[in-house]
Design a protein that fits this description.
It is elongated and about 80 Å long. The protein folds into 3 domains: 154 residues, NAD(P)-binding Rossmann-like Domain (Rossmann fold, 3-Layer(aba) Sandwich); 160 residues, 2-Layer Sandwich (Dihydrodipicolinate Reductase, domain 2); 85 residues, Alpha-Beta Plaits. A hairpin with a 4-residue loop joins β9 and β10. The termini are far apart. The strands form 2 sheets. Strands 7, 8, 9, 10, 11, 12, 13, 14, 15, 16 and 17 form an 11-stranded mixed sheet that branches. The chain has a 6-stranded parallel sheet with strand order 3-2-1-4-5-6, with helices on both faces. The protein contains 15 helices and 17 strands. α2 packs parallel to α12, α4 packs parallel to α5 and α13 runs antiparallel to α14. With 444 residues, the chain is of the alpha/beta class.
């Protein structure tokens, strides 16, 4: 029986999950790969911590280059993350003719084109199913199952930490700060969870999905991102009164010559299937021109789900090696053979409905002043909630608008926030389109 040797760089959470899957499901993995898949070397700076997995200490090393330079290793698995050493290790592995598997979404989002050019140059494969959605096979679905489709739109809940925080604010009426503390305590968030809550993690994953869906590089810096840290419990409650919940969404839409690519809190109709994605779960809802709507749902992070996705790539590459298939995987589906960068629509050109929460003094004429400024900027009001007098002297005035242009919204809000009758900066949240696909629609 053929044997494929795997070298793993990084024995942390995902690395341990990968080793666990390879050992526990060794027999079924071998059958599906067409040969014996063996862990040859593991590199990590910490060789003493107990991962709960029986590993022969002879295969452990603190030097990543020991793994890369081992002539018997066929596949390198990079699981240390980050943009520094991880990139160097991947490029060195490729130079030595080794195939690479990674879960490094930040590196792929910001340096993906360089890595793919290196893979082409050295005629090796770069596989990264685990970089988006943990155990959800959305990359393989886009690259293979939906390859006949023009992708019209993608809407994703791609960060389990933020989704857990928003679920706590929605279901338990927690403050943002209390929800973060609970997420950290339960191990769903780093301390502090900066890249999760500021939208960066979701934007990294969106950049990867966009590149696959549209077959060309994307400039990560041009993806608009806004986090969840400024949301208040009252925004969650008002959203519910209007028939919505708030989710941190990663969104792309095909506009023809260019695309939308943005990450921000979004009000999602309670009838929409994405409103039911709760806790630390991820989901990707996409639409193709022929296949229609598709939903991919599951655990978006964690040792076992992400390890499962890493091993799925190892199996794919093992099968290719055993069969003598030297063709590259073409992970970014080269629909654009010139590899021209995708053009992203600036956020100020977005057309959307909006939620506004104004903190205003309880005086006559305040609502008319606000409405006048909005009207002067072609922003029409759909619904209004105005609460009664508060002890502090200010009251919330909450509005939903009809669709408006973001540049007009920003201009109007800058004028409104300058009014002497407002006591705080206006909260603005974009509203998702329509009612979406609901469970009721499915049953009908």
């Amino acid at each position: 029986m053929a044997e494929i040797n795997v070298g793993i760089i990084g024995f942390g959470t995902v690395g341990a999950g990968t080793v666990e899957v390879l050992l526990q499901n060794k027999e079924i993995i071998g059958k599906r790969a067409g040969g014996n898949v063996k862990i040859k070397r593991i590199a990590d700076l910490d060789l003493e911590s107990d991962r709960g997995i029986p590993v022969d200490r002879e295969i452990l090393t603190t030097e990543a280059m020991d793994v890369i330079n081992d002539p018997d290793v066929h596949i390198i698995v990079e699981l240390i993350g980050g943009l520094g050493a991880a990139k160097d290790y991947i490029l060195k592995a490729m130079e030595k003719g080794k195939h690479v598997v990674t879960a490094n979404k930040a590196l792929l989002a910001e340096c993906g084109e360089e890595l793919h050019k290196a893979a082409d140059k050295y005629r090796v494969n770069l596989a990264f199913e685990a970089s988006v959605g943990g155990g959800i096979p959305v990359i393989r679905a886009l690259r293979e199952g939906l390859s006949a489709n023009n992708v019209l739109s993608i809407m994703g809940i791609l960060n389990g930490t933020s989704n857990y925080i928003l679920s706590g604010m929605t279901e338990k009426d927690l403050s943002y700060e209390d929800a973060v503390r609970e997420a950290i305590r339960l191990g769903y968030a780093e301390d502090p969870p900066t890249l999760d809550v500021d939208g960066t993690d979701a934007a990294h994953k969106l950049a990867i999905l966009v590149s696959i869906a549209y077959g060309a590089p994307v400039n990560f810096a041009k993806i608009y991102r806004q986090g969840v840290s400024e949301l208040k419990p009252e925004d969650v409650r008002f959203a519910r009164e209007f028939g919505y919940c708030i989710k941190l969404l990663a969104i792309t839409r095909n506009l023809g010559e260019r695309i939308e690519a943005r990450v921000h809190p979004t009000m999602v109709s309670l009838n929409h299937i994405m409103a039911n994605v709760k806790g630390a779960y991820n989901a990707v809802y996409l639409e193709g021109d022929f296949v229609g709507p598709n939903l991919y749902y599951g655990l978006g992070a964690g040792r076992r789900p992400t390890g499962s996705a890493v091993v799925s790539d190892i199996i794919d590459l093992s099968r290719k090696l055993i069969e003598g298939d030297h063709a590259p995987l073409l992970p970014f589906a080269p629909a654009n053979t010139k590899r021209e960068e995708i053009q992203i629509q600036p956020i100020d050109e977005l057309e959307s409905a909006y939620y506004f929460r104004f903190s205003a003094l309880d005086r006559p004429g305040v609502l008319s002043k606000i409405a006048g400024i909005l009207g002067a900027h072609q922003i029409s009001i759909s619904s209004v909630i105005q609460k009664g007098r508060q002890v502090r002297g200010s009251v919330p005035v909450v509005m939903l608008t009809h669709e408006a242009r973001e540049s007009n919204v920003l201009k109007a809000l800058s004028l409104i926030d300058g009014l002497d009758v407002l006591t705080d900066k206006t909260m603005m949240i974009r509203v998702g389109e329509g009612k979406g696909h609901s469970n009721e629609d499915e049953e009908q």
